[in-house]
Amino acid sequence: MKKTVIIIGGGISGLTSGIYAKLNGYDAVILEKNHVLGGACIGWERKGCYIDGCIHWMAGIKETSNFFGLWNDVGAISKDSPFFFQNDFHTIDFGDKKFTVWADTDKLEKELIDFAPEDERQIKKFCKLVKRFRKIEGPVHKPVDLMNLFDLLKIAFTMLGDYYYVAKTSKLSCADYAKKFKNPYLSKWLADAMSADYNFMSFLYMLGHVSNRNGGIPIGGSVEIIRRMQEKFLSLGGEVKYLSEAQKINVYSGVATGVTLKNGEIINGDYIVSSTPVEHCLKTLLEGKYPLKSIDLRLKDEKTYPTYTYTTAVFKVQADLSSAPLSHVVYLNKPITLEKDYNSVSFRNYSYDKTLKAPEGYTVVQATLSGNDKTYYWWKNVKETGDYKAEKQKIAEQLLSVYIEKYPDLLGKVEIIDVISPLTYERYLNTRHGSFQGFVHTAEGKSLMQKGVIKGLKNFILSG
Ligand SMILES: Cc1cc2nc3c(=O)[nH]c(=O)nc-3n(C[C@H](O)[C@H](O)[C@H](O)COP(=O)(O)OP(=O)(O)OC[C@H]3O[C@@H](n4cnc5c(N)ncnc54)[C@H](O)[C@@H]3O)c2cc1C
């Protein structure tokens, strides 16, 4: 009889676990708390418009990429999957001055030198680094648990020429790197581009892979990626239980045997995989009985290991915005205040993908403030004082005013159709502080190759 793997969480990681379990001859059941799969990789509909809640860029889409085989195995993409490759990555708008961050590195170099000739030497060095990072990718051929000395040496060997640059830039924050530039606008952009805490390597990695076309935006958005993965999982005979929130992982004599759902149902399996956010798994599902030193250290130190949060208002705009920038970062004359003053807003225009649903003549635009754990605490407090709905509306209206100031012709043509706060992510995903990805890669933080196995707990794997 086939052994059964029970997977808690049906995001990208849970689906990946389920597909590989099936491909390796196991039965697989995914328990998902929501009524759809996808987790953070999701889109939804409001007022006739599709709102993409995730993918701004997807890495590893070139057939030569380390990641491509993995994406292909799990059905997320194939060599024929359509992608949109953006020419303009961001338009950085300071009101009196603006420049475009082109995906094409040579074009970017020229744009930046024209903008800040006093920084020509640094700009050239910067663009050279972006090009270097085009070929740098993480190892994906094996989970960390299964790597041996030979595998680790192989990784070290393939990175030999680049190791110096990876090591150096991963210990440098974007804010510190920005200090190398004399031009105050350029310096500001570099400091803020990811979030000042981020290490510079992450920024180079992103620009490198976008410029290389190994990073693109999947046509059909996040839901299309998940639809294909779901189809693959189901076609292999996998089973999904929706609206099945796990409450507890059942452990007898050090062996994980099953899962108790919130509704009291018990689902037993031979192996249990948790693809939920890690803190939720360790503290809630495993009741804190199997702490991991490496994770605890990170959870306790929010300065070195912050999370990244979004506060977003979604606009339904009665206009064709094909000629507007895809991502327009607007620096503000008057800040928007949450737990701190936010001095810039990022507007993302979804006109690049005509397959995304919107009524004829309308375009979806998302206005985002990027924050961290502190933004989450602020929202939490607002909720506790009963002002959550009103604050969401207030902030969305402030974002709308900035948008209209920038695009005055759109006055009267923009409707706020949704507002998303870190509390939305927390409620929907059980994620730490409403963050939507792992810890921010800061310059001070140590990178972590986390094993999926937990000492003292058999038949259990941590994933995601
Ligand atoms: C706005 C936004 C933009 C992003 N942009 C990008 C991008 O451009 N490129 C990129 O690569 N990544 C991006 N990401 C990050 C990416 O989406 C995530 O890293 C990835 O989807 C995480 O997948 P996961 O399966 O590990 O976790 P999750 O997606 O969090 O999946 C966990 C699943 O577990 C479920 N769950 C939680 N608790 C329970 C429980 N107790 N019982 C049952 N089910 C449970 C959740 O509902 C969820 O479905 C973005 C994310 C967001 C939100």
User: Count of DSSP helices?
Assistant: 15
Quote the distance from N terminus to C terminus: 28 Å
Q: What is the C-level CATH assignment of the largest domain?
A: Alpha Beta
Q: Per DSSP, what share of the residues sits in E-state strands of 2 or more residues?
A: 15-25%
Question: Over all CA atoms, what is the radius of gyration?
Answer: 23 Å
* Percent helix range: 25-40%
Classify the secondary structure makeup into a structural class.
alpha/beta
CATH topology of the largest domain: FAD/NAD(P)-binding domain
The spatial strand order of the largest sheet comes to: 8-7-16-17-18-15-19
Number of domains: 3
Q: Specify the biggest β-sheet.
A: 7 strands, mixed
**Mass-distribution shape:** globular
Integer average pLDDT: 94
Give the distinct bound molecules.
flavin-adenine dinucleotide
Low-confidence stretches: none
Q: How does this structure look, described?
A:
The chain is an alpha/beta fold and 464 residues long. It folds into three domains: 4-41 and 220-302 and 444-462, FAD/NAD(P)-binding domain, CATH 3.50.50.60; 104-212, no CATH class; 308-434. 34% of the residues lie in helices and 24% in strands. It is built from 15 helices and 20 strands. It has helices at 12-23, 68-73, 105-115, 120-132, 149-158, 163-170, 174-178, 184-192, 200-211, 221-235, 278-285, 293-300, 373-384, 388-406, 422-429; strands spanning 4-8, 27-31, 43-46, 49-52, 58-59, 83-84, 88-93, 98-102, 215-218, 239-241, 246-252, 255-261, 266-268, 271-274, 308-317, 327-337, 341-349, 363-372, 414-420, 460-462. The chain has a seven-stranded mixed sheet. Strands 10-2-1-14-20 form a five-stranded parallel sheet, with helices on one face. Strand 11 and strand 12 form a beta hairpin. Helix 1 runs parallel beside helix 10 and helix 4 (120-132) crosses helix 9. The chain is globular and about 70 Å long. The two termini are 28 Å apart. 40% of the residues are buried. The model has no long low-confidence stretch (mean pLDDT 94). The structure holds flavin-adenine dinucleotide. Flavin-adenine dinucleotide binds at residues 8-14, 31-34, 39-41, 53-58, 245-246, 275-277, 280, 310, 429-431, 436-437, 464.
